[in-house]
Automatic annotation (TrEMBL):
Coiled-coil stretches noted in the UniProt entry, renumbered to this chain: none
Residue ranges of every copy of the Major facilitator superfamily (MFS) profile domain listed in the record: 20-511
Keywords for this protein: Membrane, Transmembrane, Transmembrane helix, Transport
Keyword flag tRNA processing: no
PANTHER family in the record: MAJOR FACILITATOR SUPERFAMILY (MFS) PROFILE DOMAIN-CONTAINING PROTEIN, MAJOR FACILITATOR SUPERFAMILY DOMAIN-CONTAINING PROTEIN 10
Name of the protein this chain belongs to: MFS general substrate transporter
Amino acid sequence: MASTNPRNNRKPVKPFPTRQMFILALCRICEPISFTSIFPYIYQMIDSFGITDNKNEIGIYAGMVTSAFAFAEFSTGMMWGRLSDRIGRKPVLIGGLVGTLISNAMFGFAKSFPIALVARALGGGLNGNIGVIQTTVAEIVREKEHQPRAFAIMPFIWCLGSIIGPSIGGLLAEPTRFYPNIFPPGGLLEEYPYLLPNMVASIILVLGILNGILFLEESHDVLKHKRDYGRELGQKILKFFSCRSRQRKYEGPDSYESPRAEETDPLLDRSENNTAYSTAGSSSTEEDDGIATPKGAGVTRIFTRPVVAIIISYGILAYHGMGFEQNMPVFLSTPRAEYPHHLIKFTGGLGMNTQTIGFILSMQGIFSMIAQFFFFPPLARYFGVLTLYKFVMFTFPLSYIMVPYLDFLPESLQLTGIYFVLAIKIIWTVIAYPCNAILLTNSTPSLLVLGAINGIAASCASFARTFSPTITGMIYSAGLDIGVVGLSWWCNALVCVIGGLQCLMMKREDFEGQHDEELEQTLDPEDVERIAVKASVRSAVPITSAEVAVDDYGLVVQAVDGEIANLSKSYGRGFSISRRPRGAPIANTAGEGISYRGFMRDRRGSAQRGSISTTTRAGIEDQ
């Protein structure tokens, strides 16, 4: 008796895309290394500009440099997201790395504060990779079973880069002063004492750019079949250095150089939103314009209530997270006051020196890496992403409320208390950001607009990070003036409470990954057909109107004819593909079948999903 267990009928889960995630991670790690490498020497660099005689004001100018990056990133984040929907994720990601490279070189040669400020703003404005990378991960990893693991990788890579970056900046700044035997005085590095760490970061960026050009696949559903000359070159390089069998394994089913690979392409499955052909050799680019951003996908249909809610939650998370990062080192360095005797009205920090503070802050990256592996994936699988996100956002205030009360601990226990508070904050942060990314992906009405949505989300977070350090710092200073050192921490906790209450209103059914099943409800029929035919089928007779001819299957005749022509070319001589009438028998079906899933238009003119299959020396049959 056949089993009726639904588990037995479930489709096998595809393996985790380790190779592409590794290549994407190599591109990603360049940015945190570059971004964080300036932190160890930014104070000394601004001091060397001679912009102010008051040492207390140097921190203000250092904050302006950080804010310039965040504000520029906020200003252009949506633009880069929408551009990635139009031209693809890969070119925008590579362009972002190039922008960071230009910013690094300019910052290393800066000899005045305005030049340094412009360099950092340029780095933020030319790089919109935060949202684009999240979109790419969402498109590479479609299976929900793999999402917790996939969305935890990029935060882990950021943590790894945030350990390497400060090490480069701290060790290589002012080399003629610290390593005179290796870098003798009087040369270029004495004139530009902060050039060397930026040069090393730039070399890492160049390697990341080459890695992306040669090996990173385009993940955009519509544009992924466009010919990629960089990846073709990368495959030739690999083939030169490896045996043919290993190269064939690397190229996978979507190689441009093997037309027969299309016959058994495992990516033909609809869950990957792919089509069953390759556009190798196609030089047609005039049809690309307008493909990625359907004109019928209006703002009200893209920015649904769940999408807006998650973006707002992302902004709240970024605001209080940046507030913690800005406040913690200031609190640790604030001189001690008398032992507190009141639960609310007390002042003073922990009075630690810069070496101790630096060690404490560097431990955050290590804690984050551990939490990425041992906390988020199992918790997300056990409790579910939405439930876990609600819990974390609602309990986040605990890590802020406890910080000022470290003053009450004996000096021998304060370091333990600090690590305890940091551990809570880091674990909660490590859980919150991947959860937010997964929920945003699953709430998106269409993956065709996921890049724009992630770009707007990244802009919202950058906007929050732009103002959070300034506002938090002002509240902290005001709290010291009135004798309440915990004022800024408790205000941040209040922001956390607002974020937690907002999350409690989120419903599970809003985050069930509706973009695959309800795409036709988000896009107009004309948009669906335009995308399917212009980008997927590339038929010889383009559809220019919604009033088109359909066959007795309800399939667009031009689309079917175009697909037959493409398949015939890919098979080569000795094979023929033809259309057969409904009900006609299929002969000579010994050849391998190829399935093609596309879009149909029924007699009423509404767009529907449909699928056909082709068989060598046979024809097209309805599935």
